[in-house]
Amino acid sequence: MLWPRAVKDRIKAGGDLEIVQSYPYRSAAPSTVWGDLLGAASQDIFFAGYTNYFLWTQLPAFSDALRHKTEAGCRVRFLVGDPGSDVTRQRELIEDVALTVSTRVRMTLEALTRLEPLDGLEARFSAVEDAPNHVALSVFRFDQEALVTPHLARLVGHDSPLLHLRRRGEGGMFDRFAEHAEELWSRGVPIGS
After folding, report:
1. Distance of alpha carbon 188 from alpha carbon 9, whole angstroms
2. Which of 15, 46, 85, 182 has fewest C-beta within 10 Å?
3. CA pair distance 90, 180, nearest whole angstrom
């Protein structure tokens, strides 16, 4: 036998090839993972979480980092949910927590407003018809790597699992999640319009 079972069990060869790490909770991923991905990205950073507010609390000097990225020519995008939408209100009832979904979105909007004007920074609300899909899955892309959180039942984002993916080729898990986020972005409504 060329590859004993012990070796086969440790080598990624199938559908998990693009999984760098998995965490049972988004909050279990060290902030250094987020910081390293943000620091290494140079072309396209895309925060497609429904609220995204935690980025300012989890990453030191996050606004300064975004400024540096855009000044260096990196495209930075935020896709957030509409804080006044029916989907947002429904999710608030489901989560039933003091820091509501609409408050978390508004925190992000306030932080983004403080960054204006910033060439290279774009922000959109997800389209009404896409909001149910957006609220159920967060995709945070940093060039060829991504952090993905599928939101479970009544759990808030930090209590849902997180996958760290690295693109290895066409049609893999990275591409599938990245294409999902791009589709939502394509129908998104520019904030302020």
Report:
1. 42
2. 15
3. 22
